[in-house]
Amino acid sequence: MSTATDLDAADPLAHFRERFVGAASDLVYFDGNSLGRPVAATAGRLGTFVEQEWGGRLIRGWDERWMDLPTTLGDDLARICLGAAAGQTAAGDSTTVWLYKLMRAAVDHVARTDPDRTEIVIDTDNFPTDRYVAEGIAAERGLSLRWIEVDTSAGVTPEQLREVVGERTALVVLNHVAYRSAWLADAPELTRIAHDAGALVLWDLCHSAGAVEVELDAWDVDLAVGCSYKYLNGGPGSPAFGYVAERLQDELTQPIQGWMGHADPFLMGPGYTPAAGIRRFISGTPPILGMVAMQAMLELVEQAGIEAIRAKSVALTSYAVELADAALPEVTLASPRDPARRGGHVTLHHDRMREVTARLWQRDVIPDYRDPGGLRIGLSPLSTSFDEVERGIAAVAEAMR
Length: 401
Ligand SMILES: *Cc1c(COP(=O)(O)O)cnc(C)c1O
Hints:
Helix content: 40-55%
InterPro entries: Kynureninase (IPR010111), PyrdxlP-dep_Trfase (IPR015424), PyrdxlP-dep_Trfase_major (IPR015421), PyrdxlP-dep_Trfase_small (IPR015422)
CATH class of the largest domain: Alpha Beta
Distance between the termini: 24 Å
Number of domains: 2
Number of helices: 13
GO molecular function: transaminase activity
Bound molecules: pyridoxal-5'-phosphate
CATH architecture of the largest domain: 3-Layer(aba) Sandwich
Order of helices and strands: HEHHHEHEHEHEHEEEHHHEEHEEEH
Function: Catalyzes the cleavage of L-kynurenine (L-Kyn) and L-3-hydroxykynurenine (L-3OHKyn) into anthranilic acid (AA) and 3-hydroxyanthranilic acid (3-OHAA), respectively.
Organism: Nocardioides furvisabuli
Number of strands: 13
CATH superfamily of the largest domain: Type I PLP-dependent aspartate aminotransferase-like (Major domain)
Strand order of the largest sheet: 2-8-7-6-5-3-4
Subunit structure: Homodimer.
Structural class: alpha/beta
């Protein structure tokens, strides 16, 4: 087995670590998949924004830059980490709100052309907010949910999806990387299966944006959403993003038609006319501060390149699995062993993991806990070193004893 020192010395992305707040301390951070560390440059950028742009330009800022920020930042996200051409992605809202807007738009669109398509297909281990929003929309529109039962240590397979989709399917809602197990879904194949059945597909990219390769255009994806506070280090509550394939934009009607999605917001006219293109999916005033906070990380992701980031992510999770196999014989791996099917975290299962997590937090080793018995080790590629992985797994072994 290579040592952490060797792995860090050979890591072409190792120098990025020093760009993050707190990375020089002894604290072991295993939760960058829930809340990424801040990029050190962000503090200065926010200060400059307050003093010069907000404080200096005042209301003129909207005309000069802020009105376009949801779509210019959306285009940056699309180019840097979504494999999508410009004009299809907008930043703003939360993932939950995007899920509501895009799921509603999708099922209403399908119902107009084919009223017999009354099912939303979703899996039992899909992230809770996705399931709850789907439940709400089903109740609102008289639809039903068709559940795929999944193994919580894995995720949705092509065989499972093939079995449930058909003439009644309106929409398939899936997570690209499962939040519990890190199962990396075969997105191009699952998208093809949904399309062959005549359904639309929505991918939730919260656990993949910034950590794994995504090719929304090449995969022919219809709709996608994701957040920016996990592997995109935008900070707590930073804005989410939504993607709508260009071919669908003029066909879909989103349910929260606010003034910022109007063709001419400052006309302030009597009725709603949607803007052309992706802007019609915006609702209200965009959260500019959160967008400014995300930019330094996006630049780092662009410099490093998503392919190199994914390669390091695979190396980090593989190293964590290797160490856990050796040091924690009583623990089972609740994530895929095959790195090609695994996203950016590793979940270790044992009945005592809830108390083990609490003990680790007191010692400045910060993983998180997910039922049932899962210790989740999130390894954010640009801010995590192999040495941190080694010290963290050793601390888990100690806490278990
Ligand atoms: C983190 C996460 C969310 C969070 O949704 P918010 O609206 O940002 O709270 C949604 N879906 C998935 C798959 C997630 O991992």
